[in-house]
Amino acid sequence: MRQLIFDTNVLIPFLLDQKPFMKVLSEYDKLLLPSTVLGEFRAGLFETRAGIRNGKALEDFLQRSFVGVVPVVERTAELYAKVYQALRKEGRPIPQNDMWIAASALEHCADIATFDEHFKLVPMLTVLLCG
Fold this sequence. Notes:
Layout: E1 3-6, H1 8-16, H2 22-25, E2 30-34, H3 35-45, H4 51-62, E3 67-70, H5 74-90, H6 96-107, E4 111-114, E5 127-129
Parallel strand pairs: 1-2, 1-4, 2-3, 4-5
Helix pairs in contact: 5-6
């Protein structure tokens, strides 16, 4: 089963206009949203005028059968630590929330869709750059 994780910066434009993403999504069986992505997105809802509309779009999206939310569990924390150590050893840290997102992708053997090239620094992570 092919799985894809959306980074927060892909989730936002996806909820506004899904058409550009449909070809990519058609190649996957499941779309996973880490709880860290949901937290970032929901925090951003308070900062925009369109917060209520975007919040409704998110809730509708979460009801789709091919969407799953993945929590942070002990295995995620172990992988986070490995990602952190690998990037620190290389002297190339990335933002902390992105390390959690990368750990979730590794945990679930999922590719990650993002606009951030720094995810390519994470060993063994398959990154789909969307921009």
